[in-house]
Amino acid sequence: MRSPEHVELVRTDPDLPPVAVIDRRPMTTGKKLVFAAIGLLAAIAWALVAFVRGESVNGAYFVVAAVGTYVIAYRFYARLIEYKVVRPRDDRATPGEQYENGRDFAPTDRRVLFGHHFAAIAGAGPLVGPVLAAQMGYLPGTLWIIIGAVLAGCVQDYLVLWLSTRRRGRSLGQMIRDEMGTIGGAAGLVGVFVIMIIILAVLALVVVNALAESPWGVFSVGMTIPIALFMGVYLRYLRPGRVSEVSVIGVVLLVLAIVAGGWVADTPWGAETFTLEPVTVAWLIVGYGFLASVLPVWLLLAPRDYLSTFMKVGTIVLLAVGVIIAQPAVQAPAVSSFAIEGNGPAFAGSLFPFLFITIACGALSGFHALISSGTSPKLVQKESQLRLIGYGGMLTESFVAIMALVTAISIDQHLYFTMNAPGTLTGGEPGSAADYVNGLGLAGPPVTGEEIQAAADSVGEESIISRTGGAPTLAFGMSQILGSFLGGASLQAFWYHFAIMFEALFILTTVDAGTRVARFMLSDTLGNLGGPLKKFRDPSWRVGAWICSIVVCGLWGAILLMGVTDPLGGINTLFPLFGIANQLLAAMALAVVTVVVVKKGYVRWAWIPAVPLVWDLAVTMTASFQKIFSPEPSLGYWAQHAAFRDARAAGETSFGTAADPAAMDAVIRNTFIQGTLSIVFAVLVLVVALVALWVCVKAVRAGGLPTTEEPDAPSSTFAPSGLVSTDAEKEVAAQWSAYHDEHPDRLSTGTHA
Description:
By secondary structure, the protein is mostly helical. 68% of the residues lie in helices and 1% in strands. It contains 29 helices and two strands. A two-stranded antiparallel sheet has the order 1-2. Helix 7 (172-211) packs across helix 23 (542-565), helix 8 crosses helix 12 (301-326) and helix 25 (578-599) packs parallel to helix 28 (661-702). The radius of gyration is 25 Å and the shape is globular. The relative contact order is 0.15. Residues 58-623 form the CstA N-terminal domain. Its main location: membrane. This is Carbon starvation protein A. Belongs to the peptide transporter carbon starvation (CstA) (TC 2.A.114) family.
């Protein structure tokens, strides 16, 4: 082994091999030069993105700037957080090891867990948000996605995962209650759970819209379920710990499922069998969410999310390669007039605060904190893996967001706004759409109705006009980039429909993990009530798990189905709340992290979570204020409510976007609900923030306060820290393999390098 001066081996039992490797070897000169070169390349790319204007700006600069920044941030800033705040101890048993029960607590190989965690956090946000925000230009979105992720999103995900891992995998709302007391805890529990239900229904609606009437998507996405079940059984019973083997098998089967989906969709029987109505797809998603919530996590949820990660990351990497090769010219301006005037067709509102609300999951997302305090802390093998899972997983999602932004800004701006402006503005026809976008004062030659129709024909669609929501625009941009170096124009329609299916798979993995997390949250909340309900404190209690899963699926499933059957009802009523509610969750998560850091006496490093907390509060409170009090009906809920109510009282039969009295009544009802919930959410978050401030002041005055961190329990397993094992970790893993050969009754799946 290496010199003890550089590598320390930690044992918790003299009869067992080491359970931890503490590697303090200094960075070699070669590595220093590599990081210096990466930093220099990233700096040059940033300079080109930020300062160069005109035809010389192309998408490749964004890829280089992003990847270089991520590498430097992960190696240095994340390591600073690890050393000064997290201070991982691999001789301490994680919840997965200490409470392993084969259902919810199950130590999982860090490669599989990374895949599960990334797949669970990466929902609609990193795909759709940057596409919509492209109307403000490429520079603001690029800055927020990359810098926001490094300083805010990754910090939140990493530190919430650390908190929950040290607290038996407790949910975010429960940790707020435990660390802040009854008042802050009540606000946190209620706010987190209600927002979670809205987020789940919103994400499920996106999946329904993507899979409905899509036999290719239904078949391919459906096939990932039996493939995942096979992978789970393979890792658990057939070949424990052989992650590389099952990964190859799973990828091959996934590729076959995707290719077969296209074949099946082209057959009469396949088109008839797998072309499903939106309501049918909604019911299937609710059923799948329930199964993923109650089945053992190793059987379906973790392997399916891990499998999905191959497609997610593989497609994004393929897109990045396409950008590097094709070097598409950036069509959008650095900062558009819509960013300043706040009157963009895709969404209303100025750059601050609405850019930071629209781009959520790619930079900072409260939903991530729910996953980091839900499934992931119950599966992690070692505390040293938290940096890879929490910080690294969020960096990967940020890269997804950057690639989505690059596809959007590479599309001709006239076509971009043709797709993202509502039908009331474009008129729904090529000629009227051309007239509208040509009047926006965009750069470049005007577009014709024939060119708009030709763009639709190129991707096999009847129309691309007013295909709002961001997903069709992303698919269109991906088809152009991928088609430019793989298949040409003849395969552009293939890549478009592949991208639509890819987006559905991307988002569905968030729905299943989110449902399980919501089950944990409800279980924790009920357990606080005491008495007979105290049994709910055990999240793996089978009766409680089934009850909580039924309630959770019933709640988000009900508003989903109402929205599917009524374009102005159900989740469609709550959809506009998604962005702000998600960022309000992040404020609560960062608040409890800041409280714990101060309580533990790490006041010198409290700025790490406190800076993004203050920024997020400024963004969300400003956005909430404008949504509640703005006199502009296009922006303020109550202003729109009053305008429609007055029009209805005046006897109008149509007004604004409402074509008849029933639609006007629906808008009046919806804006009342939206405005009321906006007030409730803002108040709950302010309560949590004020209580957090009060607790921090108390902790500073007292020189620290006790936390609810679980007592230490010695670990009796070993697992490497990173995706790739070091030489020291391989030697220790070999010792464990030899030990298990001699003691097969103590076989652990966590000791393979």
